[in-house]
Design goal:
Elements (H helix, E strand, L loop, with lengths): L1 H9 L1 H20 L1 H29 L1 H25 L12 H4 L2 E11 L5 E6 L12 E3 L4 E8 L4 E8 L3 E6 L5 E5 L7 E5 L12 E4 L11 E9 L8 E6 L8 E7 L2 H14 L1
Antiparallel strand pairs: 1-2, 1-12, 2-5, 3-4, 3-12, 4-5, 6-7, 6-9, 7-8, 8-11, 9-10, 10-11
Family: Belongs to the MreC family.
Protein name: Cell shape-determining protein MreC
Organism: Dyadobacter sandarakinus
Length: 279
């Protein structure tokens, strides 16, 4: 307390000067319309900027919750779009009506990426869902923008996913405009590009055309983006195009993914096994 009194005594002239300055400013603002308006406009401007900064900081701290909510909404929309597209396939012949169980066979579960590789020849990523969440090896994994990979190994709380950026991974893909089906396979170089192989050169392929997962796929729903045609070349002595796709998924910035569960996969695999046994 004595120190505070000593400070006031030593700086009494300066403090009086500050007090008079504040009082003078207040009198000017109160008695002059122009300066009063200027004061209030300036004050409102800085108050608004302060509030905007405060709101930005608060929103930034909630980004994880916002992203999780968006991921949940995307999973719901994915399931809805897949069901609707299977109920009324665009290229189905007249009279074909799929049963409701087939149309709604794919379900989606959100997972967060906790580890990811893009610079190896055989890249994998790790997600925070495992057997405790019903995840099993062989399930497909997609992002909000396209195909990601397939679950390879599971522990109780984590799963290792073979990325599409893996030399041994292939996914059946269809070009939207030409309807041609091939296989998307990474060449181990650029994580933004992937090859589309086994597409006959006797059909027209358009640069910029979209490649999506085909109907000949038990792991991924049809119509999931793989990429867009970036380059098309063909050699005279070959019967297939050399097609390069620009991947629709940015693997360097993966945060949330969706594990795809085909509820009829067991039935399909059982039929395949019977076919093998009877050959």
């Amino acid at each position: 307390m004595l120190q505070l009194v000593d400070f006031v005594i030593r700086n009494r002239f300066f403090l009086v000067f500050i007090l008079l300055e504040v009082l003078s400013g207040w009198l000017i603002v109160r008695s002059n319309t122009y300066w009063g308006a200027t004061y209030f406009n300036t004050t409102n401007h800085w108050v608004a900027r302060t509030l905007a900064l405060s709101n930005s900081i608060r929103d930034y701290t909630k980004l994880d919750d916002i992203n999780a909510d968006l991921a949940a909404e995307n999973a719901r929309l994915h399931a809805m779009v897949t069901t609707l597209s299977q109920q009324k396939p665009v290229d189905a012949p007249a009279g074909y009506v799929p049963d409701s169980a087939f149309a709604s066979r794919f379900t989606y579960q959100i997972a967060k990426v906790v580890d990811n590789e893009t610079s190896q020849t055989n890249n994998v990523l790790t997600i925070d869902k495992g057997t405790a969440d019903g995840i099993k090896p062989g399930m497909g994994v997609i992002s909000a923008t396209g195909v990601v990979g397939k679950v390879r190994f599971c522990s109780e709380n984590y799963s290792l996913v073979t990325s599409i950026l893996h030399s041994q991974f292939m996914v059946s893909s269809k070009l939207v405009r030409s309807k041609e089906i091939g296989y998307a396979k990474w060449n181990g170089k650029d994580p933004d590009l992937i090859d589309l192989i086994d597409v006959s050169k006797y059909t027209k392929v358009y640069k910029g055309d979209s490649a999506v997962t085909s109907d000949q796929n038990s792991v991924f729903p049809p119509g999931i983006m793989v990429g867009k045609v970036a380059e098309v070349t063909v050699h005279p002595n070959q019967t297939f195009y050399n097609i390069v796709l620009r991947l629709s998924t940015d693997f360097r910035n993966l945060a949330y993914v969706y594990v795809v569960r085909n509820q009829q996969l067991g039935e399909q695999e059982e039929l395949k096994l019977r076919t093998v046994e009877t050959k």
